[in-house]
Amino acid sequence: MVFGAGPKDADIMIIGEAPGEQEVRYKKPFCGPSGQLLDDLLRRQGILRGMCYITNVVKERPRSNNIKLFIDLSRKGLPGISPDYQKYEDSLIEEINLVNPNIIVAVGGVALWALCRQKGITKWRGSILESTLVPGKKVIPLIHPAAALRNYPWRHFISFDLKRIKKESVHPNLPKDNTEYYLRPTFNFAIEYLKSCAQQSIIGFDIETSRRSVSCISFARTGSDVISIPFYKGGNEYFTITQEAVIWREIAKLLANPKVEKIGQNVMFDTSFLSREYHITSYNLQDTMVAMGILYPDFPKNLGFITSIFTDMPYYKDEGKSVIRDQLKLFRSQVGSNWEERFWLYNARDSIVLTIAFPKMVDELIKTGNWVTYLEQVKLVQPLLYMTERGTRMDADGLKAQSDIATTTLEELEESLTALVGYELNPRSPKQLIDYFYGVKKIKPYLKAGRPTVDEKALKRMASKGVTEASLLLEHRRLTKLNGTYFKIVFDEDNRLRSSMNPVGTKTGRLSSSKTIYGTGANLQNQPPIMKRFMLPDEGFVAYNIDLSQAENRIVAYLGPDRNMMQAFASGKDIHSSTASLIFGIPYEDIRRMDKDDEKCPLGGGHFTHRFWGKKSNHALDYDLGYKSYALQLEILEKESKWIWEQYHKAYPGVRKYHKIVQAQLMKDRTLTNLFGRKYRFTDRWGDSLFKDAYAFIPQSTVADIINRRGINFIYYHTDLLLEPVEILAQVHDSIVFQIPKSVPFNETALILRLIVDSLETPLEWMGREFVIPAEVSVHTENFKDGRELGKISDLMLEEVVEKLQEAVNE
Asked: What is the pTM for the complete model shown?
């Protein structure tokens, strides 16, 4: 038994779940590794352990540390509770009343349940709640330090919450929600509220959707009042058709008003839905999800987490769509104002949170030096909305024919496999394949997590040793993936490929994309090269692709700096061939010839050219991939990998210098700044994994900012520079695809291309040295795969560009 310890009149009472081995040994709660971490985190927030009364719900150590012997929170619904647990919970009431703290800290899921009858510590952490065990008592849940020992970033969440705990410990009062919620507005009140919103400088808004229509929409003028305008009640229209039309007209005017800033969370979803279904265009948009992605790239970006960090509002997201829908299904016969008002309240809270959180996020963005980064990133919302709605014309018939060919080929592969094996073998059954390869064929099993596997790596290894069945299966899997994921993409009714674009994207600022909100389309960032054959410019248009040439390698070269890399780029050499030349000691011209003739390098079984190994080394070793990981990734012997690794770093010593520069900066404040001023504070556990992410950050984020700021935003917001006829279609990694009408004269098109290229090629600066990443142009009249290379047109006279354009288009 381990009882509570600390002053009986403490303002802060910390309650965990149960003692562990160390606690039992020393008869002191929270004295093991998790307790030591808690002490450290408390101290950093100015809270001394001696100021706190610390105890556990269960006062004895469970056998094998299995808390389920007392309470099983993994069960759906109510947890399983033992009689002993109930006794401990009852005695906890007396303990709380004895100490009578201003604030109780519920550490972990067991304490959260005992004190507040809630599950999900990661959801509820940081919320200020009233205890159900001792009504009137203020509780703040905290992630258990034991969990933070395993998941390092959670330490930051604990620190956020301890800061709030210290602030709340000075008084016992529960916070009051003084927000004025207007949830059953009359028609006249709704109109008046919307008109008053048009007089504000900034508002929050949020929509809830059902069956391709808006069920309710909320607007918050300030952090103290908010309206949720419902359109359905009890399965019927809330307003008359005429009234609803007037309300929607007022909403459209408000969202289009450029003088009023509109804050949203994942504003792309709301505005895209309103555009598609209601033909409403929204301007002057702010996005808390974008702000969160820049402020804390390593943390969650959902509104629940934002609420916990930037507001005092307790967690409420379980009152959201999924829960309400489930309740409505279960209690359909009881649908009434109570259920619907809870849903409208949820909708209203989303908007009120935005108006409270966003100004605080702005202050932090300015303080951390990321305000300009945010402004540039959120500017992408408008062009991405345009791209989402515009979509890309597709050769649906050609894709269907390709799918039919793939289906026939898959059948032939299965027949060949059956003939080779001697009986029917299901290519999709891991069990059958394991039995065949490691049982019938007696091949030494390839293991994954200690178990036999027939994953892609295992099949590649078998195929490299001449196992024909493995080669057939690899081709079968490749075609199955192509056919199922790509050739059978569901298009919209107009046969256009659309994608929901995400301006938050990755931690480095790169965009991401996914299927549309209707389940059509696909992720445009990972389309295989063959798909470009079926992507077409619109009738009467010519498509253009502008691609940054070997951008990340160039940035590493100049950041090192590395003389050999810089000389290769300056001389116009192919960097991958140049790297191969330095690694293998073969003249550059011979590497180029051997690659053209497909002459194989003996390394790695003799399957690839020398240039292939140069390219793979550039992509992997710039960011300090170890030779063992390199060997595993490329399926070569470790001694071969180590040799390449050593030769690479001998050839490019500046790469190691760059790594040291990054490490030195991380040692100062864990923060890196890219060539556009984008700052990233690395919050994960100090070590090799963090370093590798850090090495990649500056090159990858700089390239992302070039494409986003100097490419997409430049094209979309500069119609005054003859860019009005440009229609942006897609952005994929280091390239932008757009189309221009054929009716635009060649001299104007050439000027437009030069303007875009000049923007992308604006010099970058690092430690007083300027350099340029070339942008290369290709022209596509038939599809996005087959085109004519114009190359680096910034080196050409405008008349030369016009001549090349004429040849490419007329060809």
From this structure: 0.91
